[in-house]
Structure formats: C-alpha cells, structure tokens
Design a protein that fits this description.
Elements: H1 2-9, H2 19-41, H3 58-62, H4 67-100, H5 103-113, H6 115-118, H7 121-136, H8 141-152, H9 154-164, H10 169-177, H11 182-211, H12 214-219, H13 227-237, H14 241-264
Protein name: ABC transporter permease
Domain ABC transmembrane type-1: 73-261
InterPro entries: MetI-like, MetI-like_sf
Length: 275
Amino acid sequence: MTATTAVSSGKARWPVPTGLGIAASCAFAFVVAPLIVVAGAALNAEAMFFPPRQLTLRWMMAALTEGSFVNGALISFVVAVVAAAFSTLFALPVALQLRKAPPAVARILTLSFMGPLLVPSIIFALALYSVMIYAFGVTNLSILMIGHVIITMPYPVRTITAVTEHLDPALEDAAGSVGASPWRTFVSVTLPLIKPGVIAGFLFAFITSWNDFSISVFLTPRELQPLPIKIYEYLLYQYRPIIAAVSTWSVIGSAIIVLIIDRLVGLNVFTGRRS
C-alpha cells in the first residue's frame, strides 16, 4: 500500500547518500580535480590561473604547432608504438602458456610478470638504468625502447590472460581433429577469439609508454627526448598556459584510448573478470 501510494503521488525520492557513497564521491573529485584545473588553466589568455579569467583557445591551438612539443610527441608516439607492439608480441605466448599451467604455477608466474608494477617506478628506473649502462655503456633510442617494453609488458600479459580464461579448449580441439596444424588453429581459431584482449593490451601498453617519465628521464638520449621530458624541461624555465594545453591534449588522447579499452574488454580486466 505504501509503495503504491508513493508511485501514484508522482513524487521522486532522492536516495539518501551513505557514508560509502560520500567517500566514493570525494575520491572521484580528488582524482578528477587536477585534470579540471589543468584544462582550465589551458584556457587562460595570458597566465596560468584557475578558474580561467579570460577564455581563449589560443594555447590549445598553439600546442599543436609548437615545434618542440610536436617533435617530442612524435618521438613518444614512435617509442610507444614499438614498445607496445613488442610487449604484446612477447606477452601473447606467455599468456597462452599461463593458461595451460597449473593454477598455482600460473599465479606465481603472473605475479612475476607483474613485477614492474609492484616496484616503485623511480627505483625500477634507476635499477634498469644501471643494468643498461653496465651492459651497453650508452643510452640511445633502442635502449629507451627496451626499457619501455619491460615496463609495458605486464599490461598485455594481464589483458590477454583474462580473455584466455574464457576461451573454450573444445574449439581448438575441434580444429585439430579436422587436421588443422597448431599454427593454423592459432591463426584461425585462437587469435580471433582473444583479439579484444590483444588489442586492449596493446593500447594499455601504448598509454603507459606514452605517459612514462621515470624510465625516460634515465634512458632518454639528449637529442631524442619524448614528450614527458619536453614538458618537464619546459616547466624548469617557463610557466605559460601552453604547457597546460599540451597536458590537456595528452589527457584527452589517453581518455579516448581508455574508452576504447573499456568497449573491448572492460576496465575490470585486471581483476580477471570481463564485463
């Protein structure tokens, strides 16, 4: 009777916020607020202020044509594409083998491949720098890419592993029973089924490489600096809205890639559950 009366009255009742809901809202605001501040500062006419005092898109347009940042973005793009491609290629056989391993062994190996995510990035970067200098004696673009492959590999390993957990072995057995070779089975059956995880892993690796600072600051050669290093060096000497505009474009690009990943496999892929 009470429910019927509430519906018939046509009055909407707003849910009373709980302590957990308030805490989640505060956490969301804490994460998003810096992005809003940076985007707002990029819209200022003269100086870095928030809220913006005189709105303009001048700095957003200038960020797309400033030579130093464009060169840094191109270098970051090349490094990110190469690193993501190699880390995904390396992660693919690893994920497929983890699927066949005993559960206890698979968990231990998975944690091992997650190693770069468990160590503070600056410590890992310093250790990697020491190893590279000892092994090669120099830092160059190839060394930088090796470093980025190492730090990005956990992402495709996890995304591909999460997708293969739902792969029905009977499909591969059926292909083998009609005479398909292991390679033919992989290309025709396995790869199409796990393609969303492969693409998502590549995109996760691309974002990680694109935004990396810790590894890049140690391994970047002076003449070929990626975008995060260009931004850092610019901030050492200047503080104009163009730097906020460059950061805003980078955030927009990363957000678009995250949305694509969410559509492919879901952002809960690292928990081992697909959407």
